[in-house]
Amino acid sequence: MNRSYTKTRQANKRLDETQTVELDILMDTHRRGLHRARKKDSHHSNARRLFSCFALRRLWAHDRRGLNPAH
Fold first, then answer.
1. Backbone dihedral region for residue 41 (phi beyond 0: left; psi -120 to 50: alpha; all else: beta)
2. Structurally, how many domains does the chain consist of?
3. Residue 48 burial (CB < 10 Å; 0-12/13-18/19+)?
4. Would you say which domain of life the source belongs to (predicted)?
């Protein structure tokens, strides 16, 4: 399993426990996923891109509901 995927999983766990997240970790993983999708191993990349999408959407939903104390 690659490192950035694990970092995103950890960020998600923290989101569950404390409703906070390092947005930059998620955004970074998200951008790397988008970039990698243009390379040959497209199935893996698309899976990662989708995962990042859901993670980010979840984070934004939390922010909208005002559960993120960082805001």
1. beta
2. 1
3. buried
4. Eukaryota
3-state secondary structure (DSSP) of residue 21: coil
Q: Whole-angstrom Cα distance, residue 16 to residue 32?
A: 23
Is residue 70, in this structure, part of any structural domain at all? no
* 32 located within any domain: yes
Whether the pTM exceeds 0.70: the reply is: no
Question: What's the start-to-end Cα distance of the chain, in Å?
Answer: 32
Tell me, yes or no, whether 39 lies in a domain: yes
Q: Is the pLDDT of residue 34 over 60?
A: no
Distance of alpha carbon 32 from alpha carbon 53, whole angstroms: 12
Each residue's pLDDT tens digit, 3-14 = 666 666 666 665
Q: Which residue is associated with the tokens 């909208």?
A: 64
Greatest Cα pair distance, the chain, in angstroms, is 40
- The whole domain housing 53 covers 3-12+19-64
